[in-house]
Write a structure and sequence with these properties.
The complex is a heterodimer of chains A (43) and B (239).
Chain A lengths: L3 H34 L6
Chain B lengths: L6 H32 L14 H28 L4 H31 L7 H25 L5 H9 L3 H11 L9 E2 L4 E2 L3 H43 L1
Antiparallel strand pairs in B: 1-2
Helix pairs in contact in B: 1-7, 2-3, 2-4, 2-5, 2-7, 3-4, 3-7, 4-5, 4-6
Classes of the chains: A mainly alpha (43), B mainly alpha (239).
Chain lengths: 43, 239
């Protein structure tokens, strides 16, 4: 059995999951901090 | 720990630390996985499929470490009423759930070429699946509690009770006859049955993913604190 499709599949799941979560968390942090620092945001 | 109870003091440390952990972790992951994929040798029994270990083991470690973090934060919230504890618990839940899912998915992809099956209802795999369900329940409970304006005490109790699954996962390979291999690396005892050519990229990947996990938790805590700041301002204006 060729193992490489399983290896590449596992790395793809791990890296895509990690990158997506990092990107999502970073974007949410930047958005929330920009809203908190914005003068008159809630005025 | 109580000296970090002040969100302003926490943010002063968290802001530079987020970048250092994120970039350091990302770089270490790339180097370690590169070595694991292209430079480390194949296993004498499992062949090339052993390379899945370099993503599977760090994901398993972080799935369990994430819930340990939730349990510690829950204890601090319930006993010492640490103001950042609830924020830390919430911030850890989603990354913990994602790494538990990655552990299950990569384990399944490793199982097919080595065991001949994607899934087996054995102790280790089933207890990891239970951990994923616990994370999902924790996130749903936390969302529901916040919508009702709760202080997160029910969620914290659930976080503590759910920790009972951690020793079950750890000892599952000893208590039951399972397809999953036994422990081959113990940080506490300083023992390893893994050859150095595989151990170093594995440790590098585990440290790299852990640093990145720390950065993600800090990002989520910073986002939660910023949202609290906006909500507090809105309440002051509405009053």
């Amino acid at each position: 059995m060729n193992h490489w499709p399983f290896i590449l599949g596992a790395y793809a799941v791990a890296l895509l999951g990690t990158v997506a979560m990092t990107w999502w968390s970073l974007a949410a942090m930047k958005r929330a901090e920009a809203a908190a620092e914005k003068p008159g945001h809630d005025a | 720990m109580h000296k970090f109870a002040n969100p302003a003091r926490f943010l002063k440390i968290a802001r530079p630390l987020t970048g250092w952990l994120g970039w350091g972790g990302g770089l270490l992951i790339l180097v370690s996985l590169g070595v694991g994929l292209f430079a480390s040798p194949p296993d004498y029994l499992q062949g090339d499929s052993v390379r899945i270990m370099y993503v599977h083991v760090p994901a398993a470690w972080l799935g369990m470490a994430g819930w340990t973090g939730i349990a510690v934060a829950s204890l601090m919230q319930l006993v010492w009423r640490h103001p950042l504890a609830a924020v830390a618990g919430r911030a850890t839940a989603v990354p913990g759930a994602v790494f538990t899912f990655i552990c299950l998915a990569t384990g399944s992809l490793w199982g097919r070429p080595t065991w001949g099956t994607y899934w087996q209802w054995d102790g280790r795999m089933t207890s990891m699946l239970v951990l994923l369900f616990l994370y999902i329940a924790y996130i749903a409970l936390d969302d529901a509690d916040r919508e009702r304006g709760g202080e997160g005490r029910v969620t914290a109790i659930f976080g503590l009770v759910g920790a009972i699954n951690l020793p079950i996962i750890h000892y599952s390979v000893l208590w039951w006859n399972t397809l999953h291999q036994g422990q081959s690396l113990s940080i506490v005892q300083g023992k390893s049955s893994i050859h150095a050519s595989m151990l170093w990229p594995l440790l590098g990947a585990a440290i790299g993913f852990t640093l990145l996990f720390g950065a993600i938790v800090l990002m989520r805590m910073r986002a939660a604190l910023a949202r609290q700041k906006v909500e507090a301002r809105m309440r002051r204006l509405a009053a």
